[in-house]
Amino acid sequence: MTTGGRFTVGLTGGIASGKSTVGLLFEGLGVPLLDGDHVAREVVAPPSPALQAIARRFGAEALQADGTLDRRRMRELVFADPAARRDLEAITHPLIRERIAAWRAAQTAPYCILSVAILLESGMDSLVDRILVVDAPEEVQLRRLVSRDGIDETLARRMMAAQASRGARLARADDVVDNSLPQQALAPEVQRLHRLYLELAAAAG
Rounded to whole angstroms, how far apart are CA atoms 34 and 178? Predict the structure, then answer.
């Protein structure tokens, strides 16, 4: 078991694969879940040192008029420029990891879930005992992403390309939820996995 907390499942998947939907089903079963996206927003909330560092690196245009991070502008920038993305991640990822590790260490339920889109790419898979991948065909991801975020297909493809490939995620998965299935098929699969994780957590002590 990973040090510093309860048995931990890493929930991940390609962008717009349906990871959040699966996470909500686990939360409905009483499983503590931390969303890495929420943590990422917290660490750059004003007047955080991370936000100040981003403004120094990317200029005042990285901020909105109210002083908060201009997330849309930053997304367009970093997904067009790999070096810019690496710089942003160097500022935020250590802080995100620190908060995630502290949350995990505080959990008292039999197991908990870390929901992180870039679990593998960021090295945060070292914080979990088991990896659950929510999988969907890439054309389904693309369609959902364009619709959900109101972006064009070019940016959507860049965002998808910045993540690990579908094959790489599946190769690392201990468990897979096929989210191309009808929604009504998800709940029974999550319930099955919940029983499995309770058993694994108990065995891990």
Answer: 22
> Residue 109: how many CA atoms within 13 Å on its side-chain side?
17
List the chain residues with pLDDT less than 70. 1-5
Please state, in angstroms and rounded to a whole number, the distance separating the CA atoms of residues 101 and 23: 19
Q: What are the beta bridge partners of residue 114?
A: 10, 34
- What whole-number distance in Å separates Cα of residue 17 and Cα of residue 20? 9
Q: Are 133 and 172 in contact (CB under 8 A)?
A: yes
What was the pLDDT predicted at 2? Answer: 59
- Residue 128 to residue 130: CA distance in whole angstroms: 6
Rounded Cα distance between 205 and 203, Å, is 5
User: In whole angstroms, what is the distance from residue 184 CA to residue 133 CA?
Assistant: 18
Q: Which residue has the tokens 């694994």?
A: 200
Both tokens of 194, joined, read 């919940």
Distance CA 108, CA 81 (A): 41
Q: Tell me how far CA of residue 45 lies from CA of 12, 53, 78, 93, 119, in angstroms.
A: 24, 12, 19, 14, 22
In angstroms, the CA 125 to CA 10 distance is 7
Cβ 146 vs Cβ 132: under 8 Å: no
pTM comes to 0.89
Size of the chain in residues: 205
